[in-house]
Amino acid sequence: MCLLNSPGGNTAIKSEQKTEGNSFFSWLLVLALLGAWLSVGVVWFDLVDYSVVGALGGVYDADGDGDFDVEDAKVLLGLIEKPVTVASTENPLGERDLHAETLPGENKESTSHSPHGSASDAEPSLEFKTEESRPANQISPELPPTTQPVPTSVSTPESITETTEFKEEPSVESKEEKEAKKKKPKLLNKFDKTIKSEINAAEKLRNKGKFEESLRAFEALVQKFPQSPRCRYGKAQAEDDLAEKIHSNEMLLKAVNTYREVAELPDVPPDLIKATLKRRAERQQFLGRTRGSLATSEKLVQIFPEDISLKNDLGVAHLLLGDNKGAKRIYEEVLARAPHDGFAKVHYGFILKSENKIAESIPYLREGLESGEPGTDDGRFYFHLGDALQRTGDKSAYDWYEAGHRQGHFASVWQRSLYNVPGLRAQPWWMAEETRYTALVKMLERNWLTIRDEALSVLDSNSGQFLPEDEYLRETGDWGQFTLWQQGRKVASSCRYVPKTCALLEHYPEATSCKRGQIKFSVMQAGTHVWPHTGPTNCRLRMHLGLVIPSKGCRIRCTNQTREWEEGKVLIFDDSFEHEVWQEAESYRLIFIVDVWHPQLTQLQRQTLSPI
Fold first, then answer.
1. Which has the closest alpha carbon to 149: 594, 560, 552, 581?
2. Residue 398 sits in the same domain as residue 286
3. What is the pLDDT of residues 486-509, one digit of tens each?
4. Where are the alpha helices (DSSP H) in 77-210?
5. 351 and 464: one domain?
6. How many domains does the chain have?
7. Are 512 and 372 contained in the same domain?
8. Which tens digits make up the pLDDT trace of 498-557?
9. pLDDT tens by residue, 443-485
10. Is residue 27 part of a domain?
11. Would you say residue 579 lies in a domain?
């Protein structure tokens, strides 16, 4: 007889269902009590270190709502799925002015010692500065020039996020870093251990993102225990976090001062001194207080002379001040003690390159990048290693450009600018109609004789207005430039010499307001060769109006396409792509250069992008 058809069978089924129901509520009760007692034990009896509870948060708070409740029990029992946590899209602060308006969708990342673009007709400069952004890597990959022609147009997904800085890649940990991870920093002195529960309670608020409440709690602790280093350090961290939340330079300055107070207290554990002064130096640098950051870094090195990483940071602080000699001395000291330090090698190679010691810079840049150590995976180092190899005739340059592209530092092997807005149309050569600036092009071509005559009057006067190119872009020859607008600002002293030309341009804001470009005359003497190079940003296009062009011998290559200038005609190209110039005529070549905003940039972007 079938059990399912019998009264007894129905009873068995009901009994089984009842048992399952009881089991569910039993588990629910047990887990709820477990969560409740854990909370009581932690808060009132300091039974569990909050760092441990944080690690277990994913177990007890199964549904991700910040506490343990019935929904957590359902997740643990498999009755509902665990929700997927979506990473916050809120942009971290990346501007020195925390009140500055951020572009919609802009991903500004505060990073140390990122490359800064040149303000001239040049590649990203050898000046060492910070920049809070990442490079575009959405443009379709392209092969080196010998293997693939450049398409006429490469379209990319639309975006308005500026990326001048860089995709973080997992880096190879040094032996010291692995040891540091094993050894937990000791931030509490003997007295602070006696008030650990009160410190933990305030710290828990900070970890939950309740920065205002955490700050009030730490301020009360500092008032109660003024000699406690850990309480004051917690106050500094809460001020730091709150400054980031409300975008306040004033609050961040308070944090910087509080970090200083921590280090000046008696009986501060060495690990806490190191943590607080390192953070102070970083935030001073963020605020643009570069000299203060340098002083803090020097103090750290004095206190911890055996810590190579602090010495490396001191070298960066010198570079950010433009003190290449001081940085060079620091890295020579580091390499004397740690000859295989990859961080010191790439920075030392960078300095040698800035001194135009091309061949000497190559092994340091190459070995530093090959080390894979933290701080070496930077687009600037790939850029300058490739550039140095190109200048010595080494074809492996494009291997390094390709590696930089794979790491997300370059939009492509050809397009190696470092200050980029992704999503902009990317092609080496442009037609006037494609730019939407046909009125400007027609005006230049219609008035080219007027523009030429004013330029010749300055050139013939020998007034010293044409200044020599000084960024080591020339292999041979002479190349002078006379600037009328720089970073969107009119050079009034220059316009006095060419008033008609400046008056003509006043009506074209796409050029005169271009903060990432220039308007200038360029004269190149016979026998000049300009190395292959790229401009600093994809945010501009460059117009060349031919003024005095010899019949033969003058040409410009952009990617693998070479063209020649014509008098009275405008050439338009994107100088973020690799380009090279030859002047092999018997007389000088004179052109007028007008940079314009990339036509796909919005008005908001044009107003808020930083100058280059």
1. 560
2. yes
3. 999 999 999 999 999 999 999 999
4. 175-182, 190-194, 196-207
5. no
6. 2
7. no
8. 999 999 999 999 999 999 999 999 999 999 999 999 999 999 999 999 999 999 999 999
9. 999 999 999 999 999 999 877 889 998 888 999 999 999 999 9
10. no
11. yes
